[in-house]
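Continuing the series of single-chain predictions for the mutant panel. This is the parent chain; the variants come on the following pages.
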Amino acid sequence: MKAFMATFSLMFSLSSFGAIVPVTTVDNKVHNLLDVRSEFRVNKEKGEAFVLTIIDNRISDDYEWGLDTYRSPAEGLSFDKNTSEIVIDVEGQRIVCANVKTVGTSIFRHDRISLTGNCSFIHKKQKIRVETERRSFWKKQIVVSLKAELL
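Parent structure:
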């Protein structure tokens, strides 16, 4: 029984282990982290994948003002043209974050990105102190990271 419990706990600790890859730090005041979302985007011709972070500081959904987008590369993140997958290389492992499929016809053709569950985004707020020659002040930032589950 002890051997089973030790094996089970070892499997659980290894399966819950993930690598965190920093993506970007955005200087933007956000009221709530629920107003921040990130998603994968691809450029198929260049074979690159990137993270698009959207910060919604709008007063209501009727306005376009206050909807800020930031395009950021993540270290090791790429688009595999042969398999149509968004992958990240972390610690020598190739982890599939999403599958890309072209759907629709004619002018309605677009890429559908389906997440695999191996990767997730983490958003955190932080305050940093900025020192200048004339004054010092606190600045709010949003830190976006990508967590990849190691297999």
